[in-house]
Amino acid sequence: MREAARRAAVSPGAPFRHFPNRDALMAAAAEEAQRRFRVEIEAALGQMPSADPLARFRAFGLAYLRWAIRNPAHFEIISTGRYFAHGGSAELSRDNAELIALTEQMLTDAAEQGLLRSTDLKRIQIAGRALVYGFARMNLDGHFPRWGVEQGEIERMAEGMIDLFIAGISKP
């Protein structure tokens, strides 16, 4: 918030005067971040054939990671409950439910086409979410240098990691 206020050339407390409380301000910031995230997801999915659910699932994961890597402050506000109660925002709750339903549908389509090793779609979905979320958190928290991953390699590592996951859930 301080950085946003500085860029707007206003006092650090100025943004708070436009909202009834801190939670309302943080919810508005998270809702805007989520809108930007959705634009990235939708653009990536728009480039994938609708008949290839695993390509769409991959594109979704890569878009998630690229967005999180390029927008760490936005990722932080929509991915953690440290700043406000996400459940208090109907818009965030609805949007998250839509994204979950979207991944469920991609995996259902992949299962119906006989592309998956497992029929436990919930487990695949949660494992995929944990993978991209964990990778994004590792980036945000500065872990990659300890693992020998340089800044310029992070997106390439993300792509390889998602490919490894897709290979693991796919039938040979």
Give the topology, please.
Blueprint: H1 2-7, H2 22-46, H3 53-70, H4 72-79, H5 90-112, H6 121-140, H7 154-169
Structure report:
With 172 residues, the protein is mainly alpha-helical. 67% of the residues lie in helices and 0% in strands. The chain is built from 7 helices and no strands. Helix 3 packs across helix 4 (72-79) and helix 3 packs antiparallel against helix 7. The radius of gyration is 18 Å and the shape is globular. The termini are far apart.
Which short descriptors sum up this protein?
172 residues; mainly alpha; Tetracycline Repressor, domain 2; 7 helices
Mean pLDDT: 90
Point out poorly predicted stretches: none
For the record, what CATH class applies? Answer: Mainly Alpha
Number of E-type strands: 0
Assess the beta-strand content as a share of residues.
under 5%
Number of domains: 1
Structural class: mainly alpha
The backbone outline, from C-alpha atoms, is globular
Contiguous helical run count: 7
> What are the secondary-structure elements, in order, as H or E?
HHHHHHH
The whole-angstrom Rg is 18 Å
Q: Ends: how far apart? A: 49 Å
Q: For this structure, what is the CATH homologous superfamily?
A: Tetracycline Repressor, domain 2
What is the third-level CATH name, the topology? Tetracycline Repressor, domain 2
